[in-house]
Amino acid sequence: MLKKRIIPCLDIMDGRTVKGINFVGIRDAGDPIELAKKYVEQGADELVFLDITATIEKRATLIELVKRIAQEINIPFTVGGGINSLENAARLIKAGADKVSVNSSAINNPQLIKDIADKFGSQCMVVAIDTKLIEDEWMVFMHGGRTITPLKTIEWVQEVERLGAGEILLTSMNNDGTKSGFALNITSKVSDSINIPVIASGGAGLKKHFVDLFKNTTISAGLAASIFHYGEIPIPELKQYLLEQNIPIRL
Predict the structure, then answer these.
(1) DSSP label of 124
(2) Residues noted as catalytic
(3) Is 163 exposed, middle or buried (0-12, 13-18, 19+ CB in 10 A)?
(4) Angle of CA points 19, 21, 26, to nearest 5°
(5) Which of 42, 80, 98, 104 has the lowest tally of Cβ within 10 angstroms?
(6) Model pTM?
(7) Which helix or strand (DSSP H or E) is residue 154 part of?
(8) Contact 72, 37 (CB under 8 A)
């Protein structure tokens, strides 16, 4: 059985790691390089770096910071934020990213997914999807959760798989930062509707939430930020707990 992955997420703003609730109320969470090194030492399976204001500010991802983090870590490293061209993606991969994540740019230009997958392989192409329940329908949002789109979440994940995405990073905006648990309903539906791995994001607050996620969905990985950044749940402790609950995990 494939082992489940535990992935810390560095949301970056002005060169610092930050965290909000429901995509707002941002507060500082520390130095991204120090946090990245800590997560490698703690046994994180992968690391995600999201430059959360790059798209809004219409600029490229912070390349120098990506380079510096990549030099310090030896686990798979996904980078997203402001990637709107094949050239942007190429620069980040050259800087040390193992995978690139696109969100708003993929919605504006779905061909970008195919272009990156064709050039670097599907395994490098992650599509991040921010979803929110609106009148009984899970809808896709862009611009860091600021703008609703006409896209329905299930239809969009199936489309991005068809275009060559190798993985989905699914964030429930309703659950983000609330520490009330992952959005199991939509997460399960998304995972069951496609054949590529899905990373669940949004809502982790207790070790039990990861058990609920892995036992009740076919999800590949659980991503979290504040519980790791502020030391509420150390990764080794979480992994040991999951192992005790008979969840296949890499210690």
Answers:
(1) G
(2) 11, 130
(3) buried
(4) 45
(5) 42
(6) 0.93
(7) helix 153-163
(8) yes
